[in-house]
Amino acid sequence: MDAVQRKECGRYVAELFAPEDEVLAELRREISAQDMPEIYVDREEGRLLQVLLQAVGARRVIELGTLGGYSAIWMARALAPDGQLITIEREAERAEVARRFLDRAGLSDRVEVRVGEALELLPDLANEGPFDAIFIDADKKSYPVYLDWALANLREGGLVIGDNAFKGGAVLDTNTDDPGTRGIQEFNRRLAGDPRLTSVIVPTRDGVAIAVVKRS
């Protein structure tokens, strides 16, 4: 299968399994209008997140990197009515966009947007765990630190999910000096080698790393 066919297959999956409603479509337009980086998950990745969360019966979920709330909406829709997603965004303006669209999607009761640096907020979040899943889509150089936190605060059978596991193909460069690329490379190596985890990278648009915390 060549690159064109792969792209068409991705579109096929998105249209068949992950149709977008008007809230999600308008949120994408708003992200563009606000000059935010258009780095949110694809529709098929949003659906993958839903499948994963429902597979483990997730009720308590952490997201690092809210942006405009696109992935938060996908994930929150997979939770039970009494579930909770806590999503962290360092930019207050982006957090306000996310809150507005989460409210429009009818999800404000199950999603809390917290503003600040993830590395500063995570220590206090430990008191609210354990959690069922963590979706990491924040600064790439800190992925290994986020993994440390996840392993200390996820329940057995919980999920670590990391977006941009290929970093646009940069992970193949073994001589890179880029901190973000090196962070992703270390994160991937640790997922693959940690005996506490069963892990894989799903080769989506930019790779989604998925790990399950093994049961004792």
TrEMBL record:
<dbReference type="Pfam" id="PF01596">
    <property type="entry name" value="Methyltransf_3"/>
</dbReference>
<dbReference type="InterPro" id="IPR002935">
    <property type="entry name" value="SAM_O-MeTrfase"/>
</dbReference>
<keyword id="KW-0489">Methyltransferase</keyword>
<dbReference type="GO" id="GO:0008171">
    <property type="term" value="F:O-methyltransferase activity"/>
</dbReference>
<dbReference type="GO" id="GO:0032259">
    <property type="term" value="P:methylation"/>
</dbReference>
<keyword id="KW-0949">S-adenosyl-L-methionine</keyword>
<dbReference type="GO" id="GO:0008757">
    <property type="term" value="F:S-adenosylmethionine-dependent methyltransferase activity"/>
</dbReference>
<keyword id="KW-0808">Transferase</keyword>
<dbReference type="InterPro" id="IPR050362">
    <property type="entry name" value="Cation-dep_OMT"/>
</dbReference>
<protein>
    <submittedName>
        <fullName>O-methyltransferase</fullName>
    </submittedName>
</protein>
<dbReference type="InterPro" id="IPR029063">
    <property type="entry name" value="SAM-dependent_MTases_sf"/>
</dbReference>
